[in-house]
Design a protein that fits this description.
6-stranded mixed β-sheet, 6 strands, 2 helices, globular, alpha+beta
Length: 95
């Protein structure tokens, strides 16, 4: 059996370095949303997904899936790529 070897990062650490994120809702197709495309190009999007057990984790970048939530950060998340972001604290998200 292979174990998935992925580095993890804490959400609070990312907020500390990249700023307080804002929740983003898709109201149109992602390809037609200029604000979203700009954030994707600048590596400022995080996709929050829910596991089968109910816990949430984030990945840096835009991944369109059912029941995913998106956060837009003020600074780039490039240094946190290829990490599974755990410890999502919704109190740190601007609404």
């Amino acid at each position: 059996m292979k174990l998935l070897k992925v580095k993890t990062g804490r959400f609070s650490e990312i907020v500390e370095r990249a700023g307080r994120p804002e929740s983003y809702t898709l109201w149109q197709k992602p390809s037609a949303d200029r604000h979203l495309q700009s954030a994707i190009k600048n590596n400022r999007i995080m996709t929050i997904q829910r596991t089968d057990s109910g816990t949430e984790f984030g990945i840096v970048g835009f991944k369109q899936t059912k029941d995913a939530r998106y956060l837009v950060f003020p600074k780039s998340l490039k240094r946190f790529e290829n990490r599974r972001v755990v410890g999502i604290n919704w109190d740190l998200v601007s609404r």
